[in-house]
Design a protein that fits this description.
By secondary structure, the chain is of the alpha+beta class. It folds into 2 domains: 5-98, SH3 Domains (SH3 type barrels, Roll); 112-326, Ribonuclease Rh, Chain A (Alpha-Beta Complex), CATH 3.90.730.10. It is 26% helix and 23% strand. The protein has helices spanning 5-17, 129-135, 143-150, 186-192, 204-212, 222-237, 240-247, 255-266, 301-305, and strands at residues 24-32, 36-37, 52-53, 58-64, 71-75, 83-87, 91-98, 121-127, 159-166, 252-254, 275-280, 283-292, 324-326. The model is unreliable at 1-21 and 100-110 (pLDDT under 50).
């Protein structure tokens, strides 16, 4: 059964008029009173497995499209893509509350671009370390690059540059918020070290990332933040697109083929909008991934993004321009 057109139109208008690219996290229960489709995407009305809610069924609410909601996102166990959008007209909501972690409205006169928790998403920046070290001007400040050059290190996977809270209206200026100093546990250092090779030599780069980016969110302390960042890089490295890069170590990839791998992995052409390839000349230097504000626990990057695709790809003057991108090899 299709959701009534009027309800669908109201939901779309609500999404288009929203000031944020993402919905608002919420908690509560949704009890279906009629049979309705459960969509992966409201705008596209995607429902590849024909999933429905039926009268009497109860579901956990995880977010709404806006405070004055007309669409709710519920968790439907048993599906490969369990988070689905359902029209509010299809049932009733019990005990709805909004997560305290949602971005508060800044005080009048405050600088929103340096105020914690004003982000509307994250950017995961993953470095292709051999390409960075061989072709970027790092001015001798990267001991991990010296380790690659000497053969002390052998890196053949994507590594962590940073996990950056991002506010679209601030561009690249969101950062340097006030927050606690970095104080990572030994366990966290050991956990992150394989994915952030600078940690083999100290924590100066990690401290820089925390002071510039990490303190601009308060949902995770420094240990949780770096562990989650390492997990996300590992998931990117293990994705179809990540494995495509690693499989061509010392050779080249096709930019178009990379994005086709992204589409295949995420099951949507829109997923390519969340990815950006950064080059130094013709060599891959970095992969950036746009992620939603709520970093849901998931076994893969597909689950973390959870169908929340950007309307357009972000821009950067160092975006790889040619289709053929060289994948530098480094280490022994």
């Amino acid at each position: 059964m299709k959701v009534p057109f009027a309800a669908l139109l109201a939901g779309l208008v609500g999404l288009w008029s929203s000031t944020s690219a993402w919905a608002e996290p919420a908690q509560g229960s949704f009890v279906a009173s009629k049979r309705c489709e459960a969509f992966q995407s409201i705008r596209k009305q995607t429902n590849p497995d024909g999933l429905e809610v039926r009268p009497g069924q109860r579901f956990e609410v995880v977010e709404v499209n806006k405070r004055e909601y007309d669409w709710l996102r519920v968790r439907m166990p048993g599906s490969a893509t369990p988070l689905r959008w359902v029209s509010a007209e299809c049932g009733t909501v019990e005990g709805l509350s909004f997560n305290t972690g949602q971005a508060p409205r800044p005080e009048t006169g405050g600088d929103v671009c340096s105020t914690p928790d004003q982000h509307d998403g994250y950017v995961l920046a993953a470095t292709w370390q051999p390409g960075f070290c061989e072709h970027a001007n790092y001015k001798g400040s990267k001991p991990e690059c010296e380790g690659l050059a000497s053969g002390e290190l052998n890196i053949a996977h994507l590594t962590l540059h940073g996990l950056w809270p991002n506010r679209e209206s601030c561009g690249k200026s969101y950062g340097h918020c006030t927050g606690p100093a970095l104080d990572l546990s030994r366990q966290t250092l050991a956990y992150v070290r394989p994915w952030m090779p600078n940690f083999q030599y100290g924590t100066s780069f990690g401290r820089y990332q925390w002071d510039k980016h990490g303190v601009c969110q308060t949902q995770m302390d420094d240990d949780a933040y770096f562990r989650r960042a390492a997990d996300l890089v590992r998931q990117l490295d293990q994705s179809l697109a990540g494995r495509y890069i690693v499989a061509n170590l010392g050779g080249a990839i096709s930019k178009d083929a990379f994005y086709r791998k992204v589409e295949e992995d995420f099951g949507s052409r829109e997923a390519r909008n969340n990815f950006l390839l950064i080059c130094s000349g013709k060599y891959l230097q970095e992969v950036r991934v746009s992620l939603p504000r709520e970093l849901k626990p998931a076994d893969s990057l597909v689950g973390v993004v959870d169908g929340q695709f950007a309307a357009r790809r972000s821009r950067d003057r160092n975006e790889c321009s040619a289709d053929r991108i060289l994948i530098e090899a480094g280490g022994i």
